[in-house]
Amino acid sequence: MAVDKVRLLGDKALREISSKVTSPSAPATRRLCNRLLKIVGSQPGFGISAPQIGINDRVFIMGRPRMPAGKELKQIGKSIRVTPSWDLAFIAVVNPVVTAVSTEVEASYESCLSLPGVAALVPRHTWIEVEFKDLEGTSIKRRLRNHPARVFQHEYDHLEGIMFTDRILDTCDIVAESFVSGFHENGAPVEDLDDPVAAMKAATAGSDYDVPPDVQRESEILAAASRLSTLARRCFGPAGAGEWMGPDANGVKSNCSPTVLARAASRISSGLKLVVNPGEPVLASRALRSELVLDIPLAPAIWNRLAQYQREHSSSAGHVILFSTSLLLSGDEVDVGFALTTESYESSAAANQRSTEWTARDAETKLLAKLADRIVNIPGAEVRYVFSQRLIHPWLRMHLLERGIIAVERVSATHLAAVQELTGAHVFRSAAVLAAGSSALDVTHLGNVGAVEVLRSGSGKRLLRVQAGSRGARVASVVLCAPDEAAADELRVVAQRAIVMLKAFVHNPFALLGAGATELALATRLRQVWAKEAPTAAHASSADILASALESVVRALQPAPVSSGGLTGFDVLDELMDCKNNASKVARGWDPLLERCINPQTVLDSGPAKAHALQVGVQTAIVLFGIGSIIIEDMSSDARPR
Predict the structure, then answer these.
(1) Which end of the chain is more exposed for a tag (fewer CB within 10 A), N or C?
(2) Active-site residue, selected from the candidate residues 110, 155, 409, 421
(3) Which top EC class is given (predicted)?
(4) Contact between residue 443 and residue 256 where contact means Cβ atoms under 8 Å apart
């Protein structure tokens, strides 16, 4: 069987969203995987998807090297050398779904068979949880990390019509593939090409493909939160199948699904933006609800136009169109659906008393004028802004500017996602939506924006402030002010860690770090458990003393009350406040000792230190309980100490 030709960048099949496979175990699906295996058997690559051979089915294969014992894959971010001595085993992935992703993102070089000779630095999630079908129709769930996670995300993007170059943050990150040492060097042999099922079954094992849930995170803060979460979960005891039980305002236990918490954590990740503003006092820092402050590099003409529009109009509200594709169009462009016929050229030439020999620039200008008219005349819309992740034709930018529409190009993927979250707009991946007969470009796909203003930072830097419209999601910007650049960098790190802690708390509320919240939750839970189990008087007294000691730490820390500002909408915080209100105020046992030994003004609450202390405490308790049982047993048998 001949080897299929790989479709290259520019082919329409690479930009279409693939369809779900109705029967993963059908012979046609196996034949498709066999065709994909033939390609990676002749060309170097860790994977290939069906759209790369012109078939828009949600199918791809990905490989991992089976190496001798003692050898491991290099860390993510470093080059990965594929040599003939490595044995690549491939997995068939049909109808994949990504169910969870890490908050950590790592950048590493990637290349693609559809873009030969080019590599780019692409940010990817360090681990993902996925579900897919194999060639026998069996459902498979995996947690992938490091390089397998990167390969899976790369191939999954192909099914969504996304190329790896769409994920880069800076065009300077694009390099020649030869500059990336050892990247995809030499093809690896593929066994059993005529039997893809046998070749793919052997690749399901390996630590990179099946990671335990409590994976050690690279971040020190997240690692501490993970360890504390595990310890606190053991202290609390199981509360059901993967659910956390917490009292509501009426004292009735309610279930908080981990899926809901994960969604809330991802919303914090996508909806909370930090902007550092050096040159102003720290007390000038502020939080802006339903607003974005973007540090986008704009041309002076755009800044001047924004300032002028701000002066001339009382309101700059309107609609915004988002593009992740380039709007650099040529005269022979056919994807946008505008037919430039010879008759139209001649009639326009006669009207303008010009020669009938039209140049390519004339056709290009005519096409761009039609595109501008399409943007301006969307029924029911008042377009004010066009944001594009790529370049916009200079003539199109100036023509839109003359008609009151501000076109902003080279918007990073992070900023584009933030604007999408704020406005509710759809991100268009192709300029074909601007075609005259296209129904994709209507007012329902546009985003609503409120006021758009130009801000001046203390250092003279200009920032773009965008307010949400009627359909704006919960998005906020935190403007951090600092007297100089050094202080601004330090403040940025502190704020980023605080956001990480907030996301960890919302995602996994077993761990409540900081301000005595951990001790408070542990004490409240301890009293609930002991009251339910009705222990003996001696055990109840010991538990009460321990709970009172934990509460004494909270009082010594004197935590400020949880403010509702900026934190509304999270039921977990309401449960935390309920724990605080129900906590016992009775001081007994170790309270006098704490009052003599602890000066409240000098007590600090450290999350990592607390996690380490809890680890030591749990291990010490295990040892003491073991010794205590022996002593009690010896005393009951009237044994004498030796």
Answers:
(1) C
(2) 155
(3) hydrolase
(4) no
